[in-house]
Amino acid sequence: MASGAEGKVAPPEQAQHVFGDALPLVGRYADLLADAGVERGLIGPREVPRLWERHLMNCAVIEELVPEGAQVVDIGSGAGLPGVVLGILRPDLSVTLLEPLLRRTVFLRECIEDLGLPNVEVRRGRAEEVHAHLRADIVTARAVAPLPRLAAWALPLLRKGGSLLALKGEQAESELAEARGDLSAQRPCVADVIRVGRGKVEPATTVVRVTVTSESDHSGASKPRRPSGGSRKKRGRKR
Ligand SMILES: C[S@@+](CC[C@H](N)C(=O)[O-])C[C@H]1O[C@@H](n2cnc3c(N)ncnc32)[C@H](O)[C@@H]1O
């Protein structure tokens, strides 16, 4: 994929601490986002100066919540956040980037090829339509949907003991408090809010972690309920 010098943004000093030996490859991904990603409207031009702190590093620090060798599904991957970053940092993971929009899946496939990531694959589809086909130890999602809807999409994909890691903003505690009833009605689970990356990223990344405590019944007996909360909001501009 073409990546000129134009959109390049130098990594901050702290990036070495976060990415270690993976820094050059993450730098290449940053260039792809800043060039082709912006050109094709997958990422806003105003995001470029804050690509490292607000996007790449903020996503990277969740890797400490992902067990060795896990199968990860990144719902609504968009331009690849956090899935591509996890795939680069952690070659031990198998990462599926799940994204419904063709333009975005084309970009993601090009990125994976360019970056040479054999442990990452792209799947075009909606999370609610892949319950019969995908299983995961970890499901990640950033800026995709309110918690009740996200849980309805993610929890059926998880193996017992697996977790949804939803990257959320400062309102995570109240969002979780409102959604608790909905979450356990979807599937038995425990949920908490964790802040990761203290000392590496400022502010620390806020994650709502929902861990399922039962086997799921994929025969259909425990079909996910339509969440009562998180009513459909106006979607943002499609990129
Ligand atoms: C705001 S973007 C966030 C992209 C990326 N996760 C990030 O943080 O930059 C939301 C993404 O979710 C995707 N999406 C929307 N509905 C979805 C669904 N039902 N299943 C999977 N992805 C979905 C959209 O196509 C879009 O790429």
Key structural traits:
7 strands, 7-stranded mixed sheet, alpha/beta, Rossmann fold, 7 helices, 239 residues, 21% strand, EC 2.1.1.-, cytoplasm
What CATH architecture would you give?
3-Layer(aba) Sandwich
Please state the overall shape, judged from the principal axes of the Cα atoms. Answer: globular
Write out the distinct hetero groups bound to the structure.
S-adenosylmethionine
Decide which structural class fits the backbone: alpha/beta
Secondary-structure element series? HHHEHEHEEHEHEE
Task: Output the CATH class name.
Answer: Alpha Beta
Poorly predicted runs are: 219-224, 229-237
* Biggest sheet descriptor: 7 strands, mixed
How many discrete domains? 1
The CATH H-level superfamily is Vaccinia Virus protein VP39
Which topology does CATH recognise?
A: Rossmann fold
Task: Please tell me about this protein's structure.
It holds the Pfam family GidB. Its main location: cytoplasm. S-adenosyl-L-methionine binds at residues 76, 81, 127-128, 142. Residues 223-239 have a biased composition (Basic residues). By secondary structure, this protein is of the alpha/beta class. The chain has a single domain, classed as Vaccinia Virus protein VP39 (Rossmann fold, 3-Layer(aba) Sandwich). Helix content is 32%, strand content 21%. The protein has a seven-stranded mixed sheet with strand order 3-2-1-4-5-7-6, with helices on both faces. α6 packs across α7 (172-186). The radius of gyration is 17 Å and the shape is globular. S-adenosylmethionine (SAM) binds at residues 75-79, 81, 98-101, 104, 126-128, 142-144.
